[in-house]
Amino acid sequence: MTTKTFTIAIDGPAAAGKGTLSRRIAEQYGFHHLDTGLTYRATAKALLEAGLPLDDEAVAEKIAREVELGGLDRDMLSQHEIGEAASKIAVMPAVRRALVEAQRRFSEKAPGTVLDGRDIGTVVCPDAPVKLYVTASPEVRARRRYDEIVSRGATADLDAIFEDVKRRDERDMGRADSPLKPAVDAHLLDTSEMSIEAAFQAAQSIIDAVLSRNA
Ligand code: C5P
């Protein structure tokens, strides 16, 4: 390969385990990691905090162009309302264009990058040498999110989380611009009955095979 960087594209629905998997992969290979969901969340948070409307595409695009990729922190952006607002502004083509430009610039960092989101293998980095599509049934994903909230000592409603997971899927898979779907050349990893460790092992063998071919 002649390019100086190596990109791993990881897509999948909310709570499928792609965040944890992406962080582990980035750590293992010494690559930079970008959780692209945070770019949509940061845009949504800035709009909410400024009291700006969530349905004005020009305003949302302007805010999206001001998002700094360096300072994104999931703990500060994890609130439910931010996630909901993020998936609403994520249907806007101008917002997507602005964030995709920043994500592509990030993907070029040497020696390599891991980007996770919904459209990395299909739109942001269609030439990535490794593409993974990480999924799990809506029931399993809702249960994981529930367990995670409860383990932090908070209370949660499993049925409400399940409805939320399904609503988010419909919005992400049903939108016209860059809907969530596996790239044709993506490796599918269904984590419904797989531990994160097993998913990591599977991902590692896929990545190592491509790296040794490109060496
Ligand atoms: O992954 P996370 O739940 O943080 O993403 C928040 C929302 O941002 C998603 O529901 C989705 O609508 C949007 N998103 C997107 N494209 C990406 C990453 C996230 O549309 N690459």
UniProtKB/TrEMBL annotation:
Record-listed ATP binding positions: G12, P13, A14, A15, A16, G17, K18, G19, T20
> In what residue span(s) does the Cytidylate kinase domain sit?
8-200
Alphabetized GO MF terms: ATP binding; CMP kinase activity; dCMP kinase activity
| Superkingdom in the source lineage | Bacteria
Q: What is its EC number?
A: 2.7.4.25
Family designation: Belongs to the cytidylate kinase family. Type 1 subfamily.
The record's listing under CDD domains reads: CMPK
- Alphabetic keyword roster: ATP-binding, Cytoplasm, Kinase, Nucleotide-binding, Transferase
Gene Ontology biological process terms in this record: pyrimidine nucleotide metabolic process
Gene Ontology CC, one term: cytoplasm
Entry's Pfam families? Cytidylate_kin
**Where can this protein be found?**
Cytoplasm
The name under which this protein is listed is Cytidylate kinase
Write out the catalysed reaction. dCMP + ATP = dCDP + ADP; CMP + ATP = CDP + ADP
- What Gene3D superfamilies has UniProt attached to this entry? P-loop containing nucleotide triphosphate hydrolases
NCBIfam families tied to this protein: cmk
